[in-house]
Fold this protein.
Amino acid sequence: MTVAMLAIVGSVAMHVMWNLLVRQQGPKTRLLWWALAVHCLLLGPWGLYALITEAHWSLPLAGYLIVSALANTVYFIALDRAYHHAPVALVYPVVRSSPLLIGLWSVLLFRESLGIYTWVAMGVSVCGLLLLASTAWRNDARYALPWALSASLMTSVYSLTDKAATAYLPSLASLLGFITVGYFLSFVVITMKLRREHGQWHPQRKPPLPVMLVGGLCIGLAYILVIHAMRSLPAAIVVAFTNAGIVIAGLLSIFMFHERIHWKTRLFGILITASGLIFLAYTRI
């Protein structure tokens, strides 16, 4: 339990960093593409070697790998399209409402019992996230909503398959290789979309090298810690706890970066989300 919570804390810190980087770079940079590229180049070879040599290969693991890779690809495509139509302040909270879906699939497909107080706590935190998202609503944001909801659905799919795959992946390095397969496929598909839309193989803007490196490390390592925490905690609870990153990033945006647009409503949404997560932590004690 302690190891799982430490993994969640590390993941939250990286989520905060990723959230802030995306906010600063803007949609034309498409930091997601650069981060996936850095992950595949720097961490991918090590992870893939560990996946091949350390994983307990079987038909179930192969099936989980295929489903996870496809779900990750659809997730990143949907996320990329959502960011094209609306800012991260709207898209990301909607996408991160996935704990309720993850919990639902856990109960229906895996007969997992979460308890009524856990459901209430996750519901409260999601209400806060949706209130946060509403403050960034613009007229053209309606085009982003279906993509954001699709990304949330895919989050629920790959979260559960990744949790199931941990039984066959003994090390963090093999977990890294497992997610790298999906990341590489996502990178290829997004690159093909860029070529079709803009006639070039990369985004219009290039972020600074430090931003690329930090983004690439965060996007992969943060999720490895999430999967590792799923070894001992239900997937819905782990993903819900990682939403603490949105709480921290939201507070920083208001009090450090002085983003004052709808700040009272945003602060209220942050407090609701935080209260739900605190209640969720209380139910696990």
